[in-house]
Amino acid sequence: MRSILAARIINVLDESGMTIRKAQEATGTGTADFSRIRHANLGRFTIDRLMQILNRLDQDVEVSVNVHPRTHPRPSLTIPAPT
Fold this sequence. Notes:
Layout: H1 2-16, H2 20-27, H3 31-38, H4 47-56
Helix pairs in contact: 1-4
């Protein structure tokens, strides 16, 4: 999910021709963070933070989650008691 949002941020910047400095002014996000996003170093970013950046870049973000029951049994591991 984070990589999808980061890719969209990069696309918005590239398509608009927005410089990192302009993106920083528009979003309040530091230039170093945009560099991290561009290099897919996303460990410091939550999904919420990436969504906020997109919102501040005038993008609507919609997330959908689908939950389904499992169709196969969960694997189990049995460890014998020591003798």
